[in-house]
Amino acid sequence: MNGYIVKGIGGFYYVKTPDGIVECKPRGIFRKQKITPVAGDEVTLETENGASVIAQIAPRKNVFVRPPVANLDVLFLVASTTQPTPSTLVLDKLSAIAVDKGVQPVIVCTKGDLAEAEFLRSAYEKSTLPFIRIDYGSGAGLDEIKQWISGRLCAFCGNSGVGKSTLLKLLTHVTAPTSGDIDLYGRVASMLEVGTGFHPEMTGRENVYLNGAILGMTRAEIDAKMDQIIEFSEVGDFIDTPVKRYSSGMYVKLAFSVAAHLDSEIMIMDEVLAVGDMKFQKKCLTKMRQAAKQDGRTVLYVSHNMATIRDLCDRCIVLDKGKVVFDGDVDAGIAIYMSNNYSSERFLDFTDFRRPSWIERKSIRMRSVEFHVDTLEAVERSQPVEVEYIYDSTEDRDQIGIFFEVHDEFDVPVATACLYGMHIRKGRNRVTAKYDFSMLAAGTYSNVFTTFTLGDGGSFNTEDRTQGVQFKLVNTLKQGEAVWQTVYFGSTHLPDAQLCKEELI
Question: What is the pLDDT at residue 58?
């Protein structure tokens, strides 16, 4: 079994695995080799005498001595505007150490309510280092930090008193921002993240009773719902097992079942369909729809999945940088969300575009894209579209290609146009390609550019990935044609069928 160490206490190490947190000790061979496991180590576990032991430690991509931690992706350098006074020298030293070890440094400025943060921002605005200002009153900046954290191994460092603990409490919802009010009219059942609201040492059944008690339900009321909860969650054989031994999928299933079946007037679901198998996701969607339509419950559903939002919701609220930018019709909200996330300009500059963290190759970078059309608001679907790409490369490369991924109005991929056989030379390169969108129906689309190297047997390695534009395909109707509606007919407009025979019998 594989996993990574989350903490070590008194010679015991706690390893996060697909089956939950496992307590274990390292084999004696590590002591002889003078190797001490540290948090972040990727390890292999084996069973000896009925107990788990660390059998192997994978090679570390980086390691820090104090505190001992390995394999970091991001190092947050936390500094306050005052109390204590920030030191740019310390920030520069820590940034240099992080870069030297292949770790992305991110500067976080706290206590903006006590002093102005402009001097720090101006000091680092010309560097390549991301700079985030935190407002503990409004919560501004927290979403940006969460984006950096997502899918990465991170650490926070900084002087005592700069606000590291407060920041982590806000991120984990242990502490609420100091301003604003929330009025709730009814009992709330929520599923915010895997394991939220569960005590790891208690069994699944005991956690059901715990959550019911929090909602003010009696044991008899919970007992009346227990069979439904167990059946829906699909964890029947493990309901009396401590949840710390559950997989993430089992956590999700039981957590959703508890939230959906216990007596609450309000259900808050944060990306509940992001984990779990497709069959269970469909079952969750059906249950939430039933709770809203038939049971009269309020369902607050947070998601980036436009298709499920359109299928489930009656009202859509769009947030941008912590502010409400739309509140109303679902289709209109989806359109605003998509327009906020995709440019409608014919020219795109990717010089400062932040690539996904999983892209490791850096020799080729798409610097700009230009669509040779009059406007992206009305692209005739029957006419080819010419696109000009500018690339920078640190070396000569062959067998380079581009995936032009087309997404529909709900951000669901519907088609991909591939360009193969590019020869990219060291320096700046211009590549022009022509695309045929005539197979697509008229409607609103967006796209993503993925640059790749073609390998053996049809394999490919991603070199770069950038977000594209939003464009509208229009159709000059001919006599006797219907207006194509993508909601009903689909996004792909296949060639018209040919009538073979007409006769009266």
Answer: 93
Q: Is 257 helix (H, G, I), strand (E, B) or coil?
A: helix
Which tokens sit at 390? 């500018």
Q: What is the mean pLDDT of residues 446-453?
A: 93
Q: Kindly give the interhelix angle for 219-233 and 248-261, rounded to the nearest 10 degrees.
A: 130
As given in the structure block, the two tokens for residue 18 are: 């697909």
Helix or strand run (H / E) with residue 324: strand 323-328
72-171 maps to CATH 1.10.3720.10: no
Tokens representing 501 are 């025979």
Express each pLDDT in 385-394 by its tens digit: 999 999 999 9
* Residue 76 tokens, joined: 């947050």
Domain 2-60 part of CATH 2.40.50.140:
yes
Calpha distance 496→260 (Å, rounded): 46
Q: How does 329-355 read in b/e, with b if 16+ C-beta sit within 10 Å?
A: ebeebbbbbbeeebbeebebebeeeeb
Asked if residue 424 has pLDDT above 70, the reply is: yes
Q: Is 32 exposed, middle or buried (0-12, 13-18, 19+ CB in 10 A)?
A: exposed
Going from the C-alpha of 39 to that of each of 42, 101, 156, the distances in angstroms are 9, 16, 14
- pLDDT band for position 87 (cuts 50, 70, 90): confident
Report domain extents, the chain.
2-60, 72-171, 188-303, 347-489
Helices 248-261 and 278-293 cross at an angle (nearest 10°) of 10
The terminus-to-terminus CA distance of the chain in angstroms comes to 71
- Average pLDDT over the chain reads 82
94-103, 166-175, 378-387, 396-405 — which is least confidently predicted?
A: 166-175
Condensed to tens digits (0 to 9), the pLDDT of residues 288-345 reads 888 877 777 788 887 777 877 887 888 888 877 667 788 888 888 888 887 777 888 8
Domain formed by 347-489, architecture:
Distorted Sandwich (2.70)
For the chain, helix, strand, coil in percent to 5 are 25, 35, 40
Indicate the CATH number for domain 188-303. 3.40.50.300
Q: Is 185 helix (H, G, I), strand (E, B) or coil?
A: coil
